[in-house]
Amino acid sequence: MTSRQAVLEKGKAITRAQVEDFLFFEAELLDQWRLTEWESLLTDDAVYQIPSNDCPEGSPRASLFIIADDRERIHQRILRILSPDCHAEYPKSRTQRMISNVRIAERDGTVLKVAANFVCYRFRRGGRGYTYVGSLRYVLKIEGGEFKIKERRVQLASEELGALGSVSFIL
User: Fold this and answer.
1) Could you tell me if 118 and 135 are in contact, meaning their C-beta atoms sit under 8 angstroms apart?
2) What is the pTM of this model?
């Protein structure tokens, strides 16, 4: 269990504040490039997806996705972008995320569907900055008294993605 994550008591109601705190903690880990710690928040069957804007509700099997990672691909992505040989992230981007409009959409036993909005400011070498805006959809699972991420789906609101540069970090 992470020191920042509260223990969820069995049989107790889950509050929006608890979910918000978890999402804020996740954003902090990502902004600080603590990706190994972030990876520990994932279930063994986690997926990380960024669908294209022309088919936001699509499936990676039938539609083009910017990112469609299963658990092993997430792990490999983390190893790659933490490597000093990762030229796309050398030096590493500086990011600052704002998470808002968090709501628990559904709960079924130990599984929660959560929705939120985000803004992620990204700053690259040479002073160039990018702003990513969109929504987050999570499937969170309660394991061992903690939230774990089973699914993390990022839907970008931008209509033209080329101007945002490559998504070489965990959005």
Assistant:
1) yes
2) 0.91
